[in-house]
Each structure stands twice: as structure tokens, then as C-alpha cells.
Amino acid sequence: MRNRFLQHLYIFYSLVFLLNVIHVFWPNPVLYTVIGVAGMVMMVISVPRADRVFKILGGILLAAGSFFFISSGVSAGKIPAFFAGNVGLLFLLSMLPWMNSVVKAGRYNKLLHALLQGNGNRSLGPLYVRSEATMVSLAAFLNLSSATISQDLLINQLKHVKTKVRNSFVAMTTLRGYSLALLWSPLEILLATSIFITGANYLVVLPWMLLIALLGITIDAGIGKWLFSNYELEEQTSVLKRLSDHKKKLGGFLLALVLFLVVVVFLVNVIQFDFLFAVTIAIFPFAFLWAVLLKRKRSFLTIGWPTWKKQTNHLSNFIVLLLALSFLTESLNVSPYLEYLQNPIIALEGHPLLIMLFIQAAFLVMTLLGVHPLATMGIFGGISELLMGALPPVTLTILLASTAIATVPSAPYGLIVTLTSISLRMNPYKIVMKNLPHSLVLGFLGVLVAWFTLQIY
To answer: Which segment of the chain is annotated as a signal peptide (predicted)?
Structure first.
């Protein structure tokens, strides 16, 4: 009976998400409280099913939130509403599998295979550049699957290379390329959250995020090419198809990405939807129409429906993290202790570059300690009014998103690092050490670009 209930959690979660959609169009305080009560029920269901790291982190966030709430003197009747703030983020996470499903239905994962094939060059240096460029180009839609597919292929391609060199190559090029793609992807939860916090316009932020990605890949590809230029492939793998055979498919993929961005921008700037909500509600209709145009509707639904149910049923980690974080943030905002967290920012008032470096350091240190960057983002969200008093919304968005995403390849308990660790049979902390310089450089690039925008906005 219990297993049957857990297999149908997606129904309950979908009802909660539907209430959240209704609240967007009808912002009723009673409805918001109902969503919060449902969120608390989701927490109770999810805690036993969450991974140990998320249980600990969620417990710490709830304990801290309880302390701040008690100190606030606010009525206990307000507690349910404090759990409703991040339901929209959970809704976005629930919808992401649909985009991944149309990519699989359209067989774009095979495109990734083809682009990563050797091009006749026996040195690992050019392969590093090719692999990272492919990841940056395609990971915006393929998401995690781009990393797992490319890792499997590269491990096979480099099977005759020394294990230590192969592992370093794969861990560096795939994770770094993945993080560079996340910088501008509208489907990336950290970017969406930073825009959610600041209310900045995605269309204004996008060129700057693309600039950071371009600078990042230029620097890292150059370094990677130099580091691996002395290593050679002992034998070439056969090319699945000539690259020219895939130009049309690649063009269609990139066109779809551009069209999705256009749809999101239209919903935000013309319909006046919140960015997070616009991305969330655009995913399924866009993915479905894309599948219809590809004449892959049946494959899309066959792949998408069970994948969506499974992913939605297993949102436990993010439910624990995001709803506990919502409670902490709301409690902090009504607590007299808020000023103690604001003091470091106040002390740096008039020195925006130092504030930026402080935020970069906070993300990196907290990530290395095992705290998910979303949690750190939420803490900064709790003092967003103070931060926006020191930095314009566009600048703050660029700063929060870039410095948070920069830590992804160096998060010892992050999903992408964990998957890579399993794939390579490599200690996750060794992967972290391989990518820590990249996280530092990418975060610093984010700070520099954010500082530059400060002169404009």
C-alpha cells in the first residue's frame, strides 16, 4: 500500500503545482496558506526519502529558521505561508524532464555522439577543445544527459590512454563545459533563482552571461589544449557519421533553442509573466510542438510520461532543500537577527567590488563544505533588499548566477560530480581538486563582468 502511494506522489505534487499556477493569476492570501500547508505535507513525505546530505542540510535550515521565527514574535498561524515561497522552483524542476524527453525522442543525443568523435587529430589537446565546445553548445537543452553521454563516449575513446590522464581529461572537459552551458540556459535553476530574487530582465542579463561563457571557454579551452597537447590517442575510433551529415540536425537543434528563448522573452516582456513562471509553463507546450514538427510525438509521450512521473515522484531532495530554505528565508526576514547577517554587507558599503568578492567566496566556501549553492543563494535572497541597495538588479543577477554556477564542477556532493565519480570510479574530492581552479577563474570572470555592468546600470 505504501509503495503504491509513493508511486502516485506525482498526482499530489501536481495538484500543489496547479494551486501555485492559480495563485499566480489569483494572488489570494488564503490560497497561499493552503499551498504552504501542502508544502509542509510534502516535507513530511520527503524527509524519510531524501539523501543523508539533504536531510542534514534541511534539518540545519529548519532549525535555523525555527530560531529566527521564535525571535520574531510573529504568530504561529503564519508558519504555513513560510513554506510556500519556493513551490514555483519545484514546479520548474518537475517540468524539466519534458524538455529532455523531446531531445531524446528527436535523437539529438546521437548528435552529441557524432560531434564528439575524433576528427583525425591524434593529440588530446584539440579533442579537449572540441569536447568542451560541444558541451557548451548542447548542454543547455540536454542538461545532465549531455555530461553522462559525453563521459561514456570519451571513456571509450580514451580506453588506451593512461587511466589517470583519461580521468583528468573527462572530469575536466565535461564538468567545465557543463558549467559554462548553465550560465545562460533558461532551464538552469540557479540562473532562474537569481532572476527570481532580483526581478531582473532575462533578456538584459543574457548577453552578459553569454560573455562570461565565451570568456570562460576561451580561457579554459586554451589551458586544456596546452595541458593535454603532449598526450596522444593510441588508436582512432571510427567516426559514426561525417560531421557534414549532421549540420542540418545541429542547425535544427540550435534553432529550437533560439525559439525557446524567444518564447520565454515574449512571455516575460509582453505577457508580463515572472521569468521563473514563464520558463516553467513554456516547457511542455514547446517540447510537444517540437516533437510534432519532428514527427516524434508518439516517442516523445512514450519517453516523457514515465520519465516525468519518475522524476516528479523523486523530488524529495529538492523538496527538503527548497521548502526548508523558504522557511528559513521568510523567518529571517521578520527576525531582528537579520541585521547581523546584513552587517558584513553594510561594513563593505561603498566598496562594491569587495561585496562581489565576498559573495563569490561565500558560494565557493559553502559549496566545498557540502552546502548546495541553492541554499547559499536563498540566504543571499533573504538580504536581497540590502544587496539591491548596493548593486543594480542586473549586476546582482549576473553576480549571483555566475558565482553560484561556477561552483558546480567543484561541489563534492553535487549530482554532476557524484555521477562523474561513479562513471570514472574516482574519488569525488579528486574531481573537485581538478576543477577548483576553473571554479575560481569562472567566478572571478563573473565578478569582473558584474563590476563592468555596475558602470552601465
So the answer is: none
Summarize pLDDT for 351-406 with one digit per residue, the tens: 899 999 999 999 999 888 878 888 888 888 878 888 888 899 999 999 999 999 99
Kindly list the distances between the CA atom of residue 52 and the CA atoms of 59, 230, 254, 306, in Å, as whole numbers in the listed order: 10, 42, 39, 26
Cα 356 to Cα 326: distance, rounded to the nearest angstrom:
24
Q: Which amino acid is it at 136? A: V
Q: How many other β-carbons are positioned within 10 Å of the β-carbon of residue 400?
A: 31
DSSP 8-state secondary structure symbol assigned to residue 49: G
CB-based burial label for 120 (10 Å; 0-12, 13-18, 19+) = exposed
CA dist 106 → 240, 260, 293 (Å): 17, 16, 10
Find out whether 337 and 380 touch, Cβ atoms under 8 Å. Answer: no
Per-residue pLDDT tens for 291-349? 999 889 999 999 999 999 998 999 998 899 889 989 988 888 888 887 777 777 777 87
Which of 382, 391, 379 lies closest to 351 in space, CA to CA?
391
Contacts of 192 (CB under 8 A, 6+ apart): 89, 92, 186, 275, 276, 279
Query: Would you say 421 and 410 are in contact if contact means Cβ atoms under 8 Å apart?
Result: no
CA 257, CA 181: separation in Å to the nearest integer?
A: 12
d(CA 453, CA 456): 5
C-beta neighbour count of 148 within 10 angstroms: 18
DSSP lists the bridge partners of residue 232 as 123
Cβ proximity of 171 and 414 under 8 Å: no
**Cell numbers found for residue 46:** 520527503
Integer angstrom CA distances of residue 36 from 4, 33, 116, 220, 318: 25, 5, 46, 44, 16
Who's near 319: CB < 8 A, 6+ residues apart?
Answer: 42, 43, 45, 46, 50, 90
Please name the amino acid found at residue 205: V
Question: What are the start-end ranges of the H helices in 314-351?
Answer: 316-333, 338-347
